[in-house]
Amino acid sequence: MNNDSPEKTTHFGYRQVAVEEKADLVGEVFHSVAKKYDLMNDVMSLGTHRIIKRFTVELSALRPGMKVLDLAGGTGDFSLLFSPLVGSQGQVVLADINESMVRVGRDRIIDKGKSGNISYTLANAEQLPFTANTFDCICIAYGLRNVTDKQAALNSMFEMTAPGGRVLILEFSKPVNPLLGKAYDVYSTLWPKAGQLITGDGESYQYLVESIRMHPDQETLKQMMQEAGFENCEYHNVMGGICAIHVGHKAASR
Amino acid sequence: MQSMSVTKLPAASPRPLTTVNSIFHSTIYSLIETGLNQALSLDPGTRKQMESLSGKCIRIHCQSPRLLLNILVCEQHLSLSANEALQADISIKGNASALMKLLVTRNTANLRQDGIVISGDVGLLGKFQAILQNLDIDWEYQLSKFIGDIPTQFTHDSINAAGRFAKKTRHNLEEDIDNYLHDETRLFPSEAELKDFYKSVDVLRLRVDRLDSRTGKLQSILADAISD
What we know:
The complex is a heterodimer.
Chain A: E1 9-12, E2 15-18, H1 19-33, H2 37-45, H3 49-59, E3 67-71, H4 77-86, E4 91-96, H5 99-111, E5 118-122, E6 135-141, H6 150-160, E7 161-172, H7 178-188, H8 191-199, H9 202-214, H10 218-228, E8 231-238, E9 243-249
Parallel strand pairs in A: 3-4, 3-6, 4-5, 6-7
Antiparallel strand pairs in A: 1-2, 7-9, 8-9
Helix pairs in contact in A: 1-9, 2-8, 6-10, 8-9
Chain B: H1 19-41, H2 44-50, E1 57-62, E2 67-74, E3 77-81, E4 90-94, H3 96-104, E5 117-120, H4 122-133, H5 139-147, H6 149-184, H7 191-227
Parallel strand pairs in B: 1-4
Antiparallel strand pairs in B: 1-2, 2-3, 4-5
Helix pairs in contact in B: 5-6
């Protein structure tokens, strides 16, 4: 985020674009990749994203009757995992800013016959359209990176979290070991080529690779969460820091 | 059961993070969870019963090897996790063998002797055990859905026949070993010899007792004679 520059620009991958433009540009990327999104995730993460997702869901500490917001929920992977945990008395809200992604997610969930406690909404993470203090857990997985104003999104998430609730942020991060970092850099240069082959759109994946490198590292994100008001913030490095899961809590007494 | 204290569980606190370990556990638990829920899906009766425990969380804290397992009942389905932040209704601590014993038997009388410490809602353990042990999966019906009635009957008969054969073979083997040790090698005495031996030991003991009382009597007579 370069909000301090006079022209009010922000990064879109390695490019600097006007703040108002970023959401549309990110939107185009996801419109383009929505249908093959899950397949590409398998290719890029060598299948490990399933285990990471499962681990993230474990950290949610959800139980029947709770309300959970699957922010930037996209193709519904997390909603499908949350749904049996909160049961028929609970509620899962799948929210994404991108219509194509919500459509793919909704179709997929309905096709699996798991729609009972899941609802869908188009929402901007920076200005969440819910009542304050609603959700026992808010989870944003591989989504925060694409948000124009990340601090605004964190502030909004804090407002929507119920007292005693928690937020989970799963995102690409900075590898701890420099050697692993190099290997990962080399590997990720293959993604645009794989993207070109599978989705016919290499450019979108070029953006994904660049946006991962521009994303704040573990400690910076932790500080941003604290700034938003979250307490007891901690993070789990996954696969040597290629991904990180940040967990923050909202104090019960507020 | 009466000897156990019911204490309120302390609030969860953030724990030091050992992510590699946690991801490993998470993977294993995910496999076990799938298996358990698949087994449950074959027994609608048990699933229905389980609904009464929905929202309850049982924490198993294995001390050797160190392992944490939360079993959360979510309506008709079980969720396993290793997250300490999940508030448990009952916590069971002990080593692996004692915990396994607890799982397979309904006998909770020797818990303390086995080194198991339980805190929280103790009644929940009994209910949960009862449900798990009543798990009655109609394998034949499930199998018949896939392969048809006649092959299922054939499979059932074959499994039973194999079971009977195994039982008979074991019995024969035990008998042969017994005969070999007693009669062929004469390493061990036979039952009749043992009985004779025990009988003579009893007779000897009785005679020694009699002798003992007789010497006691003679000693007291002698003592009286000396004092006179």
